[in-house]
Amino acid sequence: MRVYRALVGAQIRSQSQYRASFLLDVGFTTLFCAMEIVSVLVIFRVTPGLGGFDVREVLLIAALCQCGFYCADLLVGNVELVSKYVRTGLLDSVLIRPRSSLGQLLALDFPFRKVGRAVQGAVIYAAALWWAGVAWTPARAVLAVVAPAATATLFAAVFVAGATVAFWWIDSGEFANAFTYGGRTFGSYPMGIYPLWLRDVFAYGLGIAFAGYQPALALLGRPDPLGTPAWAAWLSPAVAAVAWAAALALWNTGIRHYRSTGS
Amino acid sequence: MPFAAACPETDRPDLPDRPPQPAARRGLAAAAEKARCFGALAAAGYRRYATYRQAAVAGLFTNIVFGAMLCAIMLAAAHGGNTPGGYTAAQLVAFVWIGQGLLNVVHMWGWREFSDRITSGDVTSDLLRPVDPIAAYAAADLGRAAQAMLWRWLPPVVFGLLVYDMYIPHRVATYPLFAASVILAVVVSFGGRYLVNLTAFWLLDVRGPLMVWGIASAVLSGNYFPLRFLPEWTLWLAWVATPFPSLFQAPLDVAVERTSVAAASATVLVQALWAVVLYVLCVRVQRRGVVRLVVQGG
């Protein structure tokens, strides 16, 4: 653990050396991500509801989903760079060190500039909870805290699984984006609006219904128009745990499959 | 002298057997030569991007997944005969699918090839060539766009046509207007990106300007949502004061026939104006930048 702390600390120090440049970077990436929420609001300018949900409800779904996504992106989003490591053969040097390959990769490229979006995601989530007028009970208060953590874990699993593709398909480029950024967009709206095949793959196959939609339903005290029971919201941590375990298994398979470039 | 031997014969000015040509003929020949050069550079741009087939397949997959999601959101917004922004459901479907295809044709983001060359000093070899770098990079970019039109635009549109109830333009004039609008969108996009890259003459690191361009072109081009979802006055402001709607919203509005033929022609005209404005800006800024250019020895 001390090793990782040192690595991450070094990254943070080096990235914040050029202060103006760093602040500019944080500011713009944060602004960029705010646009995701703004576009939800803009769509509600021209429509009274989406799939039977009003603007406050959709905003809560979107805020929860995106808060979790940005936390995951901060912590493990840079695993995307693994394709670069595989292509250049840099992964060799990671593998010969006596620490986990995944842990090292995450610590080596820790993107401190993404901290702005994670904070912004949390602030917007808090605002959305307040605006939605949640009728607080102890159970809902617990869920309001557990849900973003579960969402973040779930998206972290998607990031890792998506990056693993690079071990088999180096030029996969944007392929993983369909599931990571695509998952973020997908999870920001009520599930009922999607066609069946999309719902099967993303909502229940990848479990993204549990990153936003299901917990938001429970927080709002709304029954699901698709007929899932109310306790489904509490499955979120379990779904996230299963997804993370699956992603790690996939990662380990990928590492075993890795053949160095030899350079 | 070995260098003299390497010199081709025809370059010697005192060759007796070539009669002096009239000025007009020379101008025409020069223009033809320029056009041939432009074509060759564009073809090279086409071939360069056609090389990365696997990446194109991966990108297509992502475009189609995103298209399906955006379509679902738009159709939910248009539920029950609602016409958001004045578009019917079928028009919104067309907007999404043609838009997913156009993203890679217009290619608004992530181009810093020229600024990298300015930063490293390689730009000197661009300036030594007999072709203006603006023309050379524009040609390559048009070649890239042609490749993207075939491999990145066509498949999502065909997917949309097959799977969804998509609006098909019924006015004949729409087709040539759309073609012109797409070409102008590429030119405007190139002009904007080139201008951003030119800031490297002063800043060396163009990340800041690149991010401003990135955010503005994402939001104000109609990529996040059709611009007509915004209040009318912002719409006008975006169209007149910025080139961004010309990148994406313009060709899409033409394609889904959101407006009359006259208004669509006016849209294309605005695009053409922005293309000219950006070209003039590129020329001027480049001239100033080149004056500033200091090449470290070696």
What would you note in describing this structure?
Helices cover 67% and strands 0% of the residues of chain A. Chain A is mostly helical and 263 residues long. The longest helix of chain A is centred in the first third of the chain and has 28 residues, at 19-46. Chain B is mainly alpha-helical and 298 residues long. Chain B has one domain. Chain B has helices at 2-6, 23-50, 53-77, 89-106, 113-120, 123-128, 133-163, 174-198, 200-203, 207-220, 232-241, 249-255, 261-292. In chain B, helix 3 (53-77) packs antiparallel against helix 4 (89-106) and helix 3 (53-77) packs across helix 7 (133-163). The two termini of chain B are 25 Å apart. The interface between A and B is large, with 36 and 36 residues.
Rg over C-alpha atoms of chain A, rounded to the nearest angstrom: 19 Å
Euclidean distance between termini CA atoms of chain A:
30 Å
Number of helices of chain A: 12
Low-confidence stretches of chain A: none
Largest interface: A-B, 36 and 36 residues
Number of domains of chain B: 1
Overall 3D geometry of chain A? globular
Give a quick summary of the entry:
Chain B: InterPro entries: ABC-2_transporter-like. The complex is a heterodimer of chains A (263) and B (298). With 263 residues, chain A is mainly alpha-helical.
Name the features:
heterodimer, A: 263 residues, 12 helices, globular, B: 298 residues, mainly alpha, 13 helices, 0% strand, transmembrane helix (chain B), ABC-2_transporter-like (chain B), membrane (chain B), transmembrane (chain B), ABC-2 family transporter protein (chain B)
SSE layout and pairings?
The complex is a heterodimer of chains A (263) and B (298).
Chain A: H1 2-15, H2 19-46, H3 55-76, H4 82-88, H5 91-95, H6 101-108, H7 115-131, H8 138-164, H9 181-187, H10 196-205, H11 213-220, H12 236-257
Chain B: H1 2-6, H2 23-50, H3 53-77, H4 89-106, H5 113-120, H6 123-128, H7 133-163, H8 174-198, H9 200-203, H10 207-220, H11 232-241, H12 249-255, H13 261-292
Helix pairs in contact in B: 2-7, 3-4, 3-7, 4-7, 5-8, 7-8, 8-12, 8-13, 12-13
